Amino acid sequence: MSAVGATRPIGRLPGRERFVESMAAASLQIIKDCDGSSGEALAALRSCYLGNLAALYGLYPDFAARIDAMPFAACPRLEPARDGRFTASVAADNGKPVYLHSRYRPGEEAAQFVSAQKDAAADGRSGDGPERDGRSFLVSGVGLGYHLLELNRQHDNPLLIVAEDDFGLIKAALCVSDLSGPIRERRLLFLTSTDKGQVHQLLRPCNADVLLGLRFVTLPHAARCHVAFHEEIRKLLGDFVTFARLQMVTLLRNARITCKNMLFNMPTYVSRPGVEVLAGRGRGYPAILVAAGPSLARNIDQLAELRRYGVLIAVQTVFKNLLARGIEPHFVTSLDFHEISAQFFRGLSDVGDCALVAEPKATWHVMDAYPGRKHLLHNDLYDRLLQDAAPERGRIKPGSTVAHLAFYLAEYLGCDPIILVGQDLSFTEGLYYPAGMPIEQIWQPELGRFYTVEMKQWERIVRARHVLRKVKDIHGRETYTDEQLFIYAEQFQSDFAGSAARVIHATEGGMRLAGTEVLTLREAAERFCTRPLPEDLFATGRTPTGGTAVAGARQALGEQLEQVRAVKEIALEMRGLLARLAGLFDQPNEYNRVVVRVDDLRTRIQHFERIYGVVTGVAQLAELRRYSADRRIGDGEVDTVTTARRRLQRDREFVDAFIEGCEYLEGVIPEALERWREADS
Hints:
This protein is of the alpha/beta class. The protein has 3 domains: 16-247, no CATH class; 265-528, no CATH class; 547-680, no CATH class. Helix content is 50%, strand content 10%. The protein has 26 helices and 17 strands. The strands form 4 sheets. An 8-stranded parallel sheet has the order 12-11-10-9-8-13-16-17, covered by helices on one side. Strands 6-5-4-7 form a 4-stranded parallel sheet, with helices on both faces. Helix 1 (16-30) crosses helix 2 (38-59) and helix 2 runs antiparallel to helix 3 (61-69). The radius of gyration is 29 Å and the shape is globular.
């Protein structure tokens, strides 16, 4: 499916006027032998289709327009079944016809199929893909929608991800089955292409639902029709789950240290210009992105001359190596939250005109260690904390790695083409790093005649043998990568597909990346690095922000500390009330009296919307647990004492974690204010 478009109001649907005519003209082709009831059946199909189409146009207008533009003659012919529903026949991969559903009772058949799947999951039998307690389904094949209706009926608000590349069949299903509810609630998605970027874009908003449990369901006809497509989609879903899990684990594990880094980086954020002063400054010139892949050793010496003709953007990992060779990048990127990242900048006294571009979540030790210009990206946390005192800062897409951030910076600068160097994303020639990296100094005591640096690098690779996988390199040969690097490559390929810039793979090694043109660095330089950069190209943005703005931001942060203390008091009272409720299930009058006070506190805390968001940001695990509990309890569950106890337990766990988040902020905000005062003294 194409990328999801912006939501737009439903007005006059394209094609609505011509619908009746086209449906009538195609009636003999899509409805076969209706025994005199074709007029009534046609009206029902028309009504169902228009309802589904309206829902699709509201959320996915591009996809809806593609469905609407397809003639009904392209749909499979509908045949009435004995139970009053329809079935249809399609061609299997071997050319033989296969029915989508029973010719007798297709509705009952779908109900039994879904019930059997549900029973198998309850019994722990994983017959078709990973099965857990979640309510997210990858459904291979759409059929005429009966199985989707049954999944929606037998499970409470499931997420239905439908893999189907036959648009005629999708259109027929939209005529037969009313799926408008799940569509409008964003619980029904269609994957119609094996394009990785489109798959990731469509599924990214559903990360949590997918990670809480994804079941694979293959409809009977899909086991014989378009098998290669369904196999590829299942593989892409597996890759997406791996990618989403890494993103989620990183978010949950590092929520608090990320918050601390951003608070400690606030003086830099407020007092120095952000990347907004760099927007479009590199337009008309190429960018050369230097990463830390092992192939960098092949062409690192060419970079000293090329920096005069292209915008040189280095990742922090190779920064010292470049400076040691007399190569001064224009920019270096940083985003890692861990203090170890500061080692890439410590001991440097002069970095020339090279500017650090970093995400605010990067460890504050990097900001302290870097001696040159610094530009921090925009972050919503500062807007919440500082409100009117928050400075306007440029927005760049957050990076998964420093290499991704370098690519997004090149796009923000307006550079074209973007030339990749050292971007192996695999273990070229059995190496993990290029020669001369700082890690070799740590290994030095272990090295000797019978234990070389190459052996040490290979050992570093095979330690992760359980996550290694083979991929094709730029020459079509097999090479090893690991799960993490593979995920990074997936993200890059998605980025390249959506970029307006031309991307040149000049690494001269490593994994082949879709959306790139493979050249040697020398070939790329001869074609694109043809005119010198102006000397003052990045001279703007050196003046610090005025003292009044800094003082206002510091005062605003102090006021937010008082807000944290206020919401903590509300949460503490809430915790006591919830504890009382746990013992009042047999006293409904007293229970209801306490609930009134609980509702009052919920109303009060709504007045602290901004700081509430900050607190839940450092209590991400609590948010995920509450969401998971809500999915397990379900909106459709009948209210009973057992249900009430489960909801109360969910709320108590969340409030406990919320109070812990408040206490964390009560400790770290004063530290940030003290750090600010020390910087001023």
